[in-house]
Amino acid sequence: MARAFLVVMDSVGIGGAPDAAAYFNADRPDTGANTLGHIAEACAEGRAEEGRTGPLSLPTLARLGLADAVTLASGMVPPGLPTAAAGAQWGAATEVSRGKDTPSGHWELAGLPVPWAWHHFKNKEESFPKDVIARVSALAGTDGILGNCHASGTEIIARLGAAHIKTGQPICYTSADSVFQIAAHEEAFGLTRLLDLCEGIAPMLHAMKVGRVIARPFTGSAAAGFTRTKNRRDYAITPPGRTVSDWVQAAGGHVYAIGKIGDIFSMQGIDEVATGTDAELMQHLAARVTDAQDGSLTFANFVEFDSLYGHRRDVSGYARALEWFDTEIGAVIAALQPGDLLVLTADHGNDPTWTGTDHTRERVPVLLAGHALPAFGMGDGTGGALGHMGFSDVALLVARHLGIQPTG
Q1: Is the predicted pLDDT of residue 382 greater than 80, yes or no?
Q2: Does residue 206 register a pLDDT over 70?
Q3: d(Cα 74, Cα 86) in Å, to the nearest integer?
């Protein structure tokens, strides 16, 4: 029996990207950004004490080699985290795709580097072309849009939520990523109407090589405050080639998607989808460890590190989330069956100690768990049996474990 579980800790970067100087937050290059390392430093120095206290405690991930991967990637020794247990297999993966965004990271982890440069809306204000604004307005049945700028999602609904309810105009915004985001009130505007709007505008933006149109529904009022809901949907460009999920299906295997994986891959290569909060997703992951089919791939993304804490530059919140995840994934690992491989990795960084609110260009950890892991011989062997490797090598690890061939 062989099953694979590929788990993406969204934005848990480990620094050291060799091309970080070419990527920016505001006017600051990402050189030196290190999501995990800087969180560990803040915890050790008593700067992450909201809802938790003391040095960062990640015994499960540390045993698998997380601290060692940070050191391999960036040269930094993260304070408070012990080194790997004997026999652990870990490495640090470097991305070649020209982006620090969700589709770039996930597609390449799945064996498909992005073959083009994404389109970005570079102007901080008046960000969108007139034809895009006109098309959104026509689809929404409104006489215009609100926003039209770079913004934080929580900030812009606080600023424009009341005007949105009054005018009915959708709130449209972007970031340093290749995204077009539309926020709307679930009751005043309507959730179905928002999703239809995003689906309707997506082909135009995908033709421009904008990676994702993201629906950002929210509830609340100006008096009580506005809150984003869990009904987010991502409308991503369909991958232009086959990924590890397609390889698994071609070999007769079943692919389970947990979290936003189905959206990221436009359901290409996916058989079943489970969504929800990260706590709910962990329950889905545990269930798949119990009942996933032989020869299957379970591909999961835990997004809240990124969406709730990284973009908001909430160091304490990010540390709490990591410690929660460490405990929960420890229970999942303990339930793995003979023949199972669990791969823990990330898609990019989002250093909560950094300037700005955008992702950071970083290497990511690759940590393996399972019973009597074979020597995979991936990477360059500079550490933990894996060493330095590429994002695409993660897909090859899965394929090798399942005994399948990359196709197409």
Answers
A1: no
A2: yes
A3: 22
Distance (Å, rounded) from C-alpha 210 to C-alpha 255?
27
| pTM beyond cutoff 0.85 | yes
Mean predicted confidence (pLDDT) in 9-35 = 97
The residues, any chain, with a CB within 8 Å of residue 224's CB and separated by 6 or more, are: none
Q: Which residues of 34-66 are buried (b: 16+ CB within 10 A; e: fewer)?
A: bbbbbbbbbbbeeebeeebeebbbbebbbbbbb
